[in-house]
Amino acid sequence: MNLISFIIYCIVVTFTPGPSNIVILSSARHYGAGRTMNYVWGATLAFGLLLASSAGLSHLLRESLPYLLDGMRIVGSIYMVYLAYLVYKMGNVEGGSGARPGFFTGFVMQFVNPKVILFTFTVLPGYVLPYYDSVIALSLFVLLVTVIGFMAYTSWAVFGALLRRMLNRHLKLLNVVMAVFLVYSAIMVSGLI
C-alpha cells in the first residue's frame, strides 16, 4: 500500500469544496466558528460511521453498491440544490441568532452527500482492503481518515470565521458563488453530465 498516496488522496478529497464544506464556511461566516462546531461534530461522526460501514460491509455491498450509489446521487443532488437555495438566501447577520446548522443537520447531511458517500465507500476498499483485513488495522485507518475529515471541516469553519468581515462585505457575491458551486456539484454527481 502506498501510504503517502492514500493520505494525499484523503486530504485532497476532504479539504476541497463540497456540500459540507460550503455549508460549514457559510455557517461560520454567518454565526462564527464556535457556533458552527456542533455541525462539524455531527458531520465528523457520520463521516466516521460511513467509513466504518464501508470497511465492514465492503464485501457484502460489492454487488449492490452501484445501485445504492445511483440512488444516493439522485437524493444527494436534490438536497444539494436545496442547500444552494438556502445559501443563496442567507442574509448578513453579524453574530447571527437565527437557526443555524447543528449537530443533527451535520450528521444527516453526510448520508445524502454524494461526495462523502462516494469517497467513504471507495477509499478503504480501493486503498486499504487489498493490503489489510484485520479489525485493528481497519479501525486505525477509519480513525485516521476521520481525523483528516475533522481537520478539513474545522479548517473551513475557522476560515469562514477569520474572514467573516471580508466575506460579509461581499455577501451577495459570496452567496451566489457558493450556491453556484453547490448547483454545479449537484449536476456533476447527478449523472446528468
Query: What is the rounded distance between the termini?
Result: 33 Å
Q: Would you report the number of β strands? A: 0
Low-confidence region ranges: 93-97
Oligomer: single chain
Question: What kind of sheet is the major sheet?
Answer: none
Please state the average pLDDT score: 80
- The helix/strand series, from N terminus to C terminus, equals HHHHHHHHH
Radius of gyration: 17 Å
Beta-strand residue fraction = under 5%
Number of helices: 9
Shape annotation:
globular
Structural class, by secondary structure, is mainly alpha
Helix content: over 70%
Short description:
By secondary structure, the chain is mainly alpha-helical.
Question: In terms of topology, how is this protein built?
Answer:
Layout: H1 3-15, H2 19-31, H3 33-61, H4 65-89, H5 103-112, H6 114-128, H7 135-162, H8 164-169, H9 171-190
Q: Which characteristics define this entry?
A:
globular, mainly alpha, 193 residues, 9 helices
Q: What features would you describe in this structure?
A:
The protein is mainly alpha-helical and 193 residues long. It contains 9 helices and no strands. Helix 1 packs parallel to helix 7 and helix 2 packs antiparallel against helix 3. The protein is globular. The two termini are 33 Å apart.
